[in-house]
Amino acid sequence: MKPSQKTCLTKMQKVMVKLADYYLQAFIFKGGIMREKLQDIISKIENVDSKAAKEAQDYCVSLLKIPGSLGRIEDLAVQLSSITGKTKNNLDKKCIIMMSADNGIVAQNVSSAPQSVTVTMTECFSKMVTGVGVFARAANAKLYVYDIGVNGDINDKAVINKKIMRGTNDFSLGPAMSEEAALKAIFTGIEAVKTAIDDGYEVIGTGEMGIGNTSTSTAVICALSGAKVKDCVGSGTGMVNDEAMQNKIDVINRGLTINKPNPDDPVDVLAKVGGLDIAALCGVFIGCAYYKVPAVIDGYISSAAAYAAFKLCPKVRGYMIESHITEEVGYKVVKEQLNLKPMFDLNMRLGEGSGCPFTFFAIDCANSMMNNMYTFEQGMISEEYTDKIDELKF
């Protein structure tokens, strides 16, 4: 090589290094701006209204029934009042925000279903023919279906295209996604809440689709809580034998060891071992708290997202309403960490948001109780009984 060629090559290398450094710094800068923006949103989230909750509780006691005899329905009515600031609510318009995304971890044989199922199911959601679809139809609830990271093309105008990646990376080999991608997903969830509210919806359920997402959910839950993977792994789409289950445990453990997600930084956890669907639903829970609307937790994946949102901002917990107990093993960790009290135990494990419509009906019942039930005074119940109400124990 001639000296002039060597010098030219050196200059070119320097230019390439400078360009690489420029893009790296721009990437870090953009991620930093997004973090600041997220923190600004979180800083504006308020605790639910304790005064409104007390007024609703007192009103519940005055209703024509034994105090506390309607159990969780009374608790739900009080919680709704704490969210809205009003004793009596209607909340007629309800929807479910669904986030669909693929997960690179499926390359490690952690699911019995092929990744192509994500595309097929996402296309079926908008037709209201899946589990969540038929239940949502029965509850007169709308589905907002988002492609946040499906590894395929969806030619359906009813599916909202917000694709960030064509599926995440295999987190057993390195980070599932960049911090910027995780933050974009979170903001997509927040924006989805605003879209629903602008359309007049007052209660928001959470749903998802993504083959392999029980593995990402377990990784997120274990990273945030410190729980052992072997105590949280479930069969997901149907692990058929002990060998397959052990592989799933080993793969998740390997991902946690390689990536070392920071348990005090939920964004880092979502980026390193999470999924785009989980990150987006985390944003939905943040958005619901920011805009002061009830957010219904569905199953395992939804609960992992709720847990991440809670770790980002504990105040969001007051806006979360539990739907049902899920059969996935790791759910018990989230249940304990968030002090969840599910409304139903229906032996469900489907996900998709399929538990939300049942909770929508419970919400309607709670509101009907507050709006339509007589008080003792209206029912002209004898003061001989009503004077003793405060002394009664149940």
Describe the structure.
It is a single chain. This protein has 394 residues and is an alpha/beta fold. The chain has 2 domains: 1-43; 94-370, Rossmann fold (3-Layer(aba) Sandwich). It is 51% helix and 10% strand. The chain has helices at 3-43, 50-62, 71-84, 116-125, 131-138, 179-198, 213-225, 242-259, 266-273, 276-291, 300-312, 331-337, 356-372, 383-386; strands at residues 94-101, 142-149, 159-161, 203-209, 295-297, 320-322, 324-326, 344-348. The chain has a 6-stranded parallel beta sheet, sandwiched between helices. Strand 7, helix 12 (331-337) and strand 8 (344-348) form a beta-alpha-beta unit. The longest helix has 41 residues, at 3-43. It is elongated and about 70 Å long. The model is unreliable at 1-9 (pLDDT under 50).
Question: How is the topology of this model organized?
Answer:
Elements: H1 3-43, H2 50-62, H3 71-84, E1 94-101, H4 116-125, H5 131-138, E2 142-149, E3 159-161, H6 179-198, E4 203-209, H7 213-225, H8 242-259, H9 266-273, H10 276-291, E5 295-297, H11 300-312, E6 320-322, E7 324-326, H12 331-337, E8 344-348, H13 356-372, H14 383-386
Parallel strand pairs: 1-2, 1-4, 2-3, 4-5, 5-6, 7-8
Helix pairs in contact: 1-6, 2-3, 3-13, 6-9, 6-10, 7-8, 7-9, 7-11, 10-11, 11-12
Unreliable sequence segments: 1-9
Can you identify the CATH class of the largest domain?
Alpha Beta
Q: Please report the distance between the alpha carbons of the first and last residues.
A: 93 Å
Please estimate the helix content: 40-55%
Backbone structural class: alpha/beta
**Bulk shape:** elongated
The mean pLDDT is 91
CATH H-level homologous superfamily name of the largest domain: Nicotinate-nucleotide-dimethylbenzimidazole phosphoribosyltransferase (CobT), large domain
User: Looking at CATH, which topology of the largest domain would you report?
Assistant: Rossmann fold
Q: What topology, given as strand order, has the largest sheet? A: 3-2-1-4-5-6
Q: Give the total of domains.
A: 2
